[in-house]
Amino acid sequence: MSATILPHTRFDDAFATRGVATSPGLIPYITAGFPNRGDTVPLLRAAQETGCLGAEVGIPFSDPLADGPTIQRSGWQALRNGMTLRLAVGQVQEARAAGVTMPLAAMTYINPVLAYGVTEFARDAVRAGLDGLIVPDLPADEADSVRGSLHEAGLVLIPLVAPTTPPARLARICAGAGGFIYCVSRSGVTGARDVIAPEALRLLAGVRAVTSLPRALGFGLSRPEHIEALAGHAEAAVVGSALIDALEREPSDPAETLQRFVRRILGIPNPA
């Protein structure tokens, strides 16, 4: 485990500001470069303007492991649009310059980070305004060196834990985490589901037993009742596939589509 002091990020401030709010904050998953290459910044601004707690910036990779069909389609479109890890980092910097102040975490795979260079990526990511990194194919047992490089630059490594994660391993994973703990609602890949499985709530309780870090539940959330069901169980909800589906159906004004989607899932009336 890296002995580097855990960086303080915008996620810490955002969750602290919410205090003991019973409803979870929303963290939308936005594929960088989708639907169009230049949509990343407007979508991040729209998410902030609609009251999202933060955002997860998905950076596409040619061989995704955790992405379901919907996010895979968005990733392929983004790759066809010319999206790269370096370009996505640049778009985050543009978003910060455009007034985006909410916390941002990048979600990508380990190969692009290694190709970029872990130390160089961490430095550029922090300079651009990223707060955390989510790497679903980086095993916890092999994450120490990556985590150390990220921490030294000021970036936290946000782990994923699943209902199948044994308690002892759950404690080890959470001990090196920063920002929040990404709790996967069920085994398998991303994709909208009908209900929150009981094992998801058991996982959230298990995480609380080993860490005081905020918990964000993701993979499958798609309806207002899903957010309501998490009240008192999770501090944040990550919504990805359902939002990507909405952007595919209504691509003409992605920022407006995102805002309508966020208002609907949070139960906020749309402006007249």
Question: Explain this structure to me?
Answer:
The chain is 45% helix and 12% strand. The protein has 272 residues and is α/β, with parallel strands linked by helices. It has a 9-stranded parallel sheet. Helix 7 (144-153) links the parallel strand 4 and strand 5.
| Cα-based radius of gyration, to the nearest Å | 17 Å
The oligomerization state is single chain
Total count of strands: 9
Low-pLDDT windows of residues: 188-192
Helical fraction equals 40-55%
User: How many strands, which pairing sense, and closed or not: the largest β-sheet?
Assistant: 9 strands, parallel
Strand content: 5-15%
Keywords:
single chain; 272 residues; 9-stranded parallel sheet
Describe the structure concisely for a colleague:
This protein is of the alpha/beta class and 272 residues long. 45% of the residues lie in helices and 12% in strands.
